[in-house]
Amino acid sequence: QKYDPEAKDPYLSGALATVLWELSLLQKHHDETVSGMASNILSMANLNATQNPVQLSSSNPLEAYKDLSMGRELSKPTHKVSQTLKCKRKRRSKEFVALSTDVLEKADCTVGEDELREKLQSHFAVLRGISENERLRTELNHALSSINMYKEYKKQKKASKKSKKAAKA
């Protein structure tokens, strides 16, 4: 059954079939953690901390990068890749550049907690400002459309009064 986002009944939309199909594809993924997680979800296994294939640690980003290095992440898949996929990957590879661990180690990644908190606060203040600006702009557009509708109403009312006077005369 194909996914139909326009279906009136969500149970008849085919969304579950689509999710299961995508999970079955992820089960064949070349990365062991991805395929393991998809297998666990498909088997409806109860995941607890010991079963979780993705280890979440409290290490800093540089250590996490070393643990899940790009060399291991970008290893070649064991199954044969079609020609069209190779072409797509070539096109995408021009847009994405993976940094080596040497470059990351040389970079100054020591950011104080206070500095990080300050940067995040300023970033989210900007985001709040943007959302507030969008809300105010929406209100302004609504008010302007109401004013324009009122002006149009007045014009029509004047025109109808003139036509009534002309009809009486």
From TrEMBL:
Pfam families with a match to the protein in the record: CBF
GO MF, one annotated term: chromatin binding
Gene Ontology CC annotations of this record: nucleolus
InterPro entries to which the protein is assigned, alphabetical: CCAAT-binding_factor, Nucleolar_cplx-assoc_3
Gene Ontology BP terms: DNA replication initiation
Taxonomic superkingdom: Eukaryota
Residue span(s) of domain CCAAT-binding factor: 2-38
Family membership: Belongs to the CBF/MAK21 family.
UniProt name for this protein: CCAAT-binding factor domain-containing protein
